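Exercise 7b. Backbone tokens:
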């Protein structure tokens, strides 16, 4: 097997996974652990050591602190990690995002992130309704979100708001109210995620679940598209909306199959011709770093077939779609294997050609999760 080079951007994105959460949300599927002071000290030390082990000799174009709850990091820990990754020189990332829960976005904390050089905050608002927040197991009060967005904007951050829909008990009127209150705050970027509960025993078993979820969520999705579009947000990816010039550059680099390095437990990377994911255990990850050998799972070369599969899956989730000629030139016969599948989607009006680009239609975007699964199973799945 040969390793493939990346499809588009040559810039480096770095993702830092901060695995601590004070409590567990009802819908959580991420690796996280309780925030014990001792663990956080050793986490920060190991993160700095992992960065040194990776021997990166180029500037970081985009940096993203996700979790978990990055906002739980103390000033001292955050400064230590930032000092190792970007120092205090001129080569700062052009975009540095930190995910924060609204409850941890107090003014003094925001000031600290600002002083470190953070440019963008992704606020896990999820909902403004106490009823929905309780159903999700979130600890914030609904007023925290408004205070956080207003405070962050006043301090000059680009602000992204995460919302969740299709929560059990949530009505279309509840969702409309969450959208209305979000739009009133005028964030730069909005991500809307469906609570799908799509875990099944096998890929093929998940497909009917994803199709049912798409049908159940259609009215919620279309309401979001309409209201956010009317408010001037560009729908640029299945779940993401931005004001002009405010798309998330870090995520775009990932979706366009650029290069990114993940640091911390469970962080995934596509880097130096390889795909890998750090072990999802704070203890094992730290041990590996201490021994000078980061402990990786799902490790392997970035092969042509993996690169093509993910170029199709993630590229089609973007409204801009994928350039067909580029796929043919880059992947040749491998790409042509997918043509019967793409032709079926076109016949079903899930896919269309816009000039040279292959793009999902609105109906196709609603089914994007299920279509991604079909690509993964092609040509062996029987759909
Ligand atoms: S804050 Fe995020 S990572 Fe932490 S428990 Fe909630 S969903 Fe999971």
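Sequence design result:
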């Amino acid at each position: 097997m040969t390793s493939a080079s990346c499809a588009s951007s040559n810039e480096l994105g770095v993702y830092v996974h901060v695995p601590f959460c004070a409590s567990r949300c009802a819908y959580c599927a991420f690796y996280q652990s309780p925030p014990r002071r001792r663990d956080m000290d050793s986490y920060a030390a190991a993160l700095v050591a992992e960065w040194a082990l990776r021997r990166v000799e180029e500037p970081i174009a985009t940096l993203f602190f996700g979790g978990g709850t990055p906002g739980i990091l103390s000033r001292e820990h955050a400064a230590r990690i930032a000092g190792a990754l970007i120092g205090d020189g001129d080569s700062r990332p052009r975009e540095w995002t930190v995910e924060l829960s609204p409850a941890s976005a107090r003014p003094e904390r925001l000031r600290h992130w600002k002083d470190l050089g953070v440019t963008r905050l992704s606020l896990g608002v999820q909902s403004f309704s106490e009823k929905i927040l309780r159903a999700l197991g979130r600890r914030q009060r609904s007023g925290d979100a408004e205070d956080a967005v207003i405070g962050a904007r006043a301090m000059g951050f680009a602000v992204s708001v995460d919302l969740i829909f299709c929560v059990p008990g949530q009505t279309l009127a509840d969702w409309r109210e969450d959208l209305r209150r979000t739009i009133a705050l005028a964030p730069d970027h909005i991500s809307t995620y469906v609570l799908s509960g799509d875990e099944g025993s096998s890929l093929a078993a998940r497909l009917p679940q994803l199709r049912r979820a798409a049908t159940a969520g259609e009215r919620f999705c279309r309401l979001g598209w309409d209201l956010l579009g009317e408010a001037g947000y560009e729908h640029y990816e299945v779940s993401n909306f931005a004001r002009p010039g405010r798309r998330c550059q870090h995520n775009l680099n990932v979706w366009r199959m650029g290069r990114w390095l993940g640091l911390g437990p469970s962080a995934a990377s596509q880097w130096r011709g390889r795909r890998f994911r750090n072990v999802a255990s704070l203890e094992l990850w730290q041990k590996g770093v201490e021994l000078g050998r980061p402990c990786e799972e799902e490790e392997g070369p970035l092969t042509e077939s993996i690169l093509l599969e993910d170029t199709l899956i993630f590229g089609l989730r973007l409204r801009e779609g994928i350039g067909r000629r580029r796929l043919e030139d880059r992947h040749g016969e491998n790409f042509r294997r997918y043509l019967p599948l793409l032709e079926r989607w076109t016949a079903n009006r899930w896919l269309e050609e816009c000039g040279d680009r292959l793009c999902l239609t609105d109906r196709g975007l609603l089914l994007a999760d299920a279509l991604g699964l079909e690509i993964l199973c092609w040509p062996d799945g029987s759909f």
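Instructor comment: The CA atoms of residues 209 and 217 lie 12 Å apart. The first strand starts at residue 12 and ends at 18.
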